[in-house]
Amino acid sequence: MVSTTLHINGEEHHLHLDSRVTLLDALREHLGLTGTKKGCDRGQCGACTVLIDGRRVNACLTLVATVTGRSVTTIEGLASVDGLHPIQEAFLKHDGFQCGYCTPGQICSVVALLTELKDQTVSTVTADVRQPLSFPATDEEIRERMSGNLCRCGAYPLILAAIREVMDGTVQQP
Amino acid sequence: MNPFQFYRPTDAHHALELGSAPGAQFLGGGTNLVDLMKGGVAQPRRIIDLTGLPYARVERLADGGVRIGALVRNSDAANHPLVREHYPLLTQALVSGASAQLRNMATVGGNLLQRTRCSYFTDTSFTMCNKRVPGSGCAARDGFNRMHAILGTSEACVATNPSDMSVALTALDAVVQVQNLSGFRSIPMATFLRLPGQTPERDTELKPGELIVGVDLPANPFASHSIYLKVRDRASYAFALVSVAVALDLEGARVRDCRVVLGGVAPKPWRALDSEATLRNSELDEMVIGRAAQGSTSGAQPLTYNAFKVELAQRAVGRALRRAARI
Ligand SMILES: Cc1cc2nc3c(=O)[nH]c(=O)nc-3n(C[C@H](O)[C@H](O)[C@H](O)COP(=O)(O)OP(=O)(O)OC[C@H]3O[C@@H](n4cnc5c(N)ncnc54)[C@H](O)[C@@H]3O)c2cc1C
Ligand code: SF4
Ligand code: FES
Ligand code: FES
User: Fold this and answer.
1) Residues of chain A whose C-beta is under 8 A from some C-beta in B?
2) Which pTM value belongs to this model?
3) Where in the sequence is the domain holding B282, given as residue range(s)?
4) CA-based torsion, A168, A99, A60, A42: positive or negative
5) All domains of chain A in start order, with CATH
6) Rounded to whole angstroms, what are the CA distances from A6 to A71, B66, B148, B164?
7) Residue B245 domain-assigned (yes or no)
8) Ligand 3 center to residue B105 CA distance, Å?
9) Residue A132 has what pLDDT?
């Protein structure tokens, strides 16, 4: 058993759990936060993507005990009292889903993607990793950087359209 | 998953003490270990989370090289300015692996020790696997071995090492820094990962309970002419069928020095010494590239379903050489 204090979507939670529990199961089974989805449970699909200290990770391979003291953001934490997060709006506008099962993971992933682009990180399709990243990011860059989120319904073109819209508004030319 | 005690020490000595107990296993990002625990392949009784240890920095070494701490996440190692500028080959190899999410979790130490993706190893419903159950036989030898090795195999095991990072580290002459209860030791990448021989259950030269604290990269002249090329079944988020790290030190078209290392074809990153010998001191033209490409798989012993890897590796070497030399 482990005792852990988690900060989730701005709220503090004290849990006493079996050390085997993953962050994904803690969220879904112990905290009632079922927005984060379980697809493969083995790091292969991205349905469980959440943000830890602002970085995207797979909750299914994260033991909850390792998250002690860190801050977790799930899909439930993105909207504010003023309304949906701009990425959520863009997914609605562009119909960036069909069944919706992968969507919470996709959206959390996009939140981190935008930060990673601002931070000038490189990807496997970046032509020259010794040079600063060129903006705006190409569709190829976005597809590669979103490859950790599978969509069984194949909504990829519409997901890309949603990301493009949000990105071209938020990512400034350097 | 079997039950285990969980610890999160903040100093290395405490971690080593905790790690000396039977059944203890260290945890980096957990992307390999937790996966293997879910499948019942790994059954640690004690987990020691290393992420509280002070080994998460990238720093310059006095001799001009760079040290990457064992707890640096793969994404941070890839994007560190010192690595991008001086070891772009390593950056490319790191970002070619897994997904953005997994790279944010995975640590450099864990990546070095990730286990094979041989499906007879990862699926415990197969009874034969010498790596998982020593002496049980090798199901892959006469099974579906499309992903398996063509070089460096033994009668006991034909699995490949899946790490992209390790291929680049081998080309860059990296040295693994290790700590144990009696002090520190260094293991060059060239010998860190083992060939299976009669003991495929041992992947590396690391002894039980030893801690990887970092990886040292010596200064080298390769940064402006190096390429990591990865060939896989889909464009992203897949392990390599074949990969190649090429690093050249050019004087005009003449190759002063070089490294050619293959991934996805052997139980460890496979240094193509014949190709390097062809290239060294030669003027790089299509004929030399062709000979170097052909020589890269010398000694290959394909299995039933992976003979395609021979030609694929050769073509990958040729293409990587052209791209690294920009011709
Ligand atoms: C779906 C999927 C796709 C992937 N695709 C790729 C790919 O394309 N290319 C690729 O290269 N990799 C790929 N990976 C593998 C990934 O890179 C590794 O799982 C990761 O690098 C392991 O690092 P970690 O820190 O999570 O290791 P952990 O799982 O924490 O640990 C792995 C092993 O290392 C030991 N360990 C960890 N740190 C230390 C240390 N400092 N000292 C001593 N022992 C230590 C642990 O005890 C354990 O035995 C993929 C993984 C998944 C799940
Ligand atoms: S190739 Fe190695 S890991 Fe795969 S079944 Fe044979 S012994 Fe096991
Ligand atoms: S549920 Fe975590 S990656 Fe599939
Ligand atoms: S919308 Fe159905 S899986 Fe993506």
Assistant:
1) 2, 18-20, 22, 41-43, 46, 49, 55-58, 61-63, 65-66, 68, 109, 112-113, 116, 119-124, 126, 128-130, 143-149
2) 0.97
3) 223-325
4) negative
5) 2-77 (3.10.20.30), 86-168 (1.10.150.120)
6) 7, 35, 42, 34
7) yes
8) 13
9) 93
